[in-house]
Amino acid sequence: MSRIASAAVVLGLVTVLAGGASTPARSSPGTPAATFKACLVTDPGGINDKSFNELAWRGMQEAVRADGHIEISYLQSMSTGDYTTNIDAFIAQKCGIIVTVGFLMADATESAAKAHPKRKFAIVDCSYSEECLAGPKVKNIDQLVYNTVQDGFLGGYLAAGLSKTHRVATFGGENFGTVTIYMDGFWDGVQYYNAQHHAHVKVLGWSEKTQRGSFIENFTNLIAAQKLTARFIREGADVIFPIAGGADQGTSKAVRNADAAGRNVAIEWPDTDGCFSFPKYCKYLLTSVTKGIAESVKTVMLADARGTFKRIYTGTLANDGVALSPYHDFAARVPARLRAELARVKAKIISGQIVPATRSPV
Predict the structure, then answer these.
(1) Mean pLDDT over residues 212-240, rounded?
(2) Is 356 within a domain?
(3) Overall pTM > 0.85
(4) CA angle at 237 for the pair 233 and 241, rounded to the nearest 5°
(5) What is the 3-state secondary structure (H, E, C) of the chain?
């Protein structure tokens, strides 16, 4: 999903800050001097992008609070051309680990890792298995990936449980594995709900069995996403799960229009908590099917600071690397019975009693 996150950031470049400003953060007074330095290179969205950069920086701050021997710093890229420059600056500073964010930084990260095999790197939402990194594999890159089929399953179960029309929908930006893994989980969750309740909730826009469905063919076309969402609503869907990056805002506009026309339609947001990223749409968001960016960055930083380098971190329900967000404005509409069912389903996924789909991000 790194392509999606990066596409969303591109839409927000209007308020880019000046690049190259580094901000160190150290342990609080009275704690031992920092002995491990972790460094973050952001894309042009910066650490206040309400998306992956901000969450990665939050994870680094949480690592500092957990271990007073860690010092953190970031460099914001003003453009994609700054990625290599900023990474090289941190190499010169002898950072213990350099964290980069998303597939647009893949080439710069991989080149630096090859040129400096004794330096350690981590890249958020990007891996060799997803073909985000070109290969051959470099041993000093920790790939942070997220098994979103698991929380997608919970999202599908929740959608089926709340649907009044017995029709829900999902669609993608492009037909990538990091997109369809969400859709697989959502589809499977609906089917599991149907089996448990002898229900017949239908999923529009995707079939996990055939791997066929609806895509708008990019991650930026809000109008295409709005039109496709409107079509699903006309066909009866009352919960929509878009996985189309910045274009997801088109779904929000279609749902807002449906609300104005007296139709009750809800959205499940991907990647980040939509109420955090786009608070103006929060009233339409049932939940968000999220990647635990902050938790994953914190985990790999603490591990590396303590001498353990992972090479691959996989976010799961068990390690809080994927999760459903709070229900926010929908909290009163999710009955206790359904909440309890979701808790049991989550426990069964963690224990291995339920195995959503068969594909994995690693």
Answers:
(1) 97
(2) no
(3) yes
(4) 95
(5) CHHHHHHHHHCCHHHCCCCCCECCECCCCCCCCCCEEEEEEECCCCCCCCCHHHHHHHHHHHHHHHCCCEEEEEEECCCCCHHHHHHHHHHHCCCCEEEEECHHHHHHHHHHHHHCCCCCEEEECCCCCCCCCCCCCCCCEEEEEECHHHHHHHHHHHHHHHCCCCEEEEEECCCCHHHHHHHHHHHHHHHHHHHHHCCCCEEECEECCCCEECECCCCCCHHHHHHHHHHHHHCCCCEEEEECHHHHHHHHHHHHHHHHCCCCCEEEEEECCHHHHCHHHHHHEEEEEEECHHHHHHHHHHHHHCCCCCCEEEECCCCCCEEECCCHHHHHHCCHHHHHHHHHHHHHHHHCCCCCCCCCCC
- Residue 181: name the closest of 222, 225, 205, 149 by CA: 149
Tell me how far apart the alpha carbons of residues 267 and 263 are, in angstroms, rounded to a whole number.
13
Q: Give me the CATH number covering residue 231.
A: 3.40.50.2300
Is the domain of 167 the same as that of 102?
no
Which residues are 323's β-sheet partners? 290
Q: Which of 275, 238, 271 is nearest to 254 (CA)?
A: 238
Domain count, the chain: 2
For residue 198, the enclosing domain spans: 148-291+327-351
Average the pLDDT over 263-284 and give the result: 95
CA count, 13 A, side-chain hemisphere, 316: 17
Q: From the centroid of its chain, how far is CA 361?
A: 13
Is the link from the previous residue into 136 a cis peptide, with omega within 30 of 0? yes
**Which one-letter amino acid corresponds to residue 315?**
G
Query: Could you read off the pLDDT of 122-153 as tens digits, one per residue?
Result: 999 999 988 899 989 999 999 999 999 999 99
Q: What is the mean pLDDT of residues 104-131?
A: 94
Sign of CA dihedral 327, 192, 318, 243: negative
**Integer Cα distance of 48 and 86 in angstroms:** 18
Tens digits of residue pLDDT in 9-36:
333 333 233 344 555 554 444 444 568 9
